């Protein structure tokens, strides 16, 4: 046991010696909601990373939409591949800034655990349906605090939970509370703009030369070039400082590319037409289960008693993959063929 403990202690010593004075040190975590014995080998942030990877919600990300609903091809980005992309960029940013890679990775891996089926369309729909509103970042925290491990939650550290909750606070001065969390904010935006652009080109929604030339001149013409530009820019603007930010020119070009994507991909007539279909489907299921919470699976029935039917229904629907949402809808609302086996027997 002493040898195991020395592994953790060596990691603590490494962080003190080599990480930036502005980095979040594992030994100085604000702790967990429920106290636990420390792991003899891993730091607290390493434990959080492992808990997230082995959670059910993480596994479900592989069949949740990123942008394109139920894509036919094998190479479109899903919520899982987006998460891995964010994790890789977050670690790269943390590494070049001498921040805590383990913390950045744990936040990145958990940041979208509460995302709905059908991407941000599903989020907008549940936000409209629920009296309390619905935001995927808040739901991600609810997943790790309440829904995982049969209602016990994963009991993550304060810093990881804070980073998950505030991962969409891009440009905020005080959120997240750690620079590693701010790395995830930037990595999330860099990742989805780049891979969504690639998917749009692959789907024939855009052509590569549709991207305005002034954006290409700053960021680059390929995903590799754009990501490298972003990481280099953050290093130039942030190294040795208590901040994580891009240089003004690169940030402005990134904002312009994001605005271009909203205009030409996210808010197109086709995309909004598919969202209307998703809204009819999710609205019907929301109404059905809020009126009949006894029809929910057992663990969600217990959540309805513990919290409220609305919260439990949002928990259930947001946990669904795209394919499972279609399956549940069909099971409830689409008539099935008659079986004559009983009559024959």
Q: Which assembly state applies to the chains in this document?
A: single chain
Instruction: Calculate the mean pLDDT score and round it.
Output: 92
Task: Quickly give the structural class.
Answer: mainly alpha
Give the distance, in angstroms, between the N- and C-terminal Cα atoms: 66 Å
Q: What's the count of strands?
A: 0
Reported CATH architecture: Orthogonal Bundle
CATH C-level: Mainly Alpha
Please give the domain count: 1
- Radius of gyration, taken over Cα atoms and rounded to an integer in Å: 22 Å
Residue share in helix: 55-70%
SSE order, one letter for each helix or strand = HHHHHHHHHHHHHHHHH
Note poorly predicted spans: none
Helix segment count? 17
CATH H-tier superfamily: Hypothetical protein af1432
Strand content: under 5%
CATH domain fold name: Hypothetical protein af1432
**Largest sheet data:** none
Principal-axis shape equals: flat
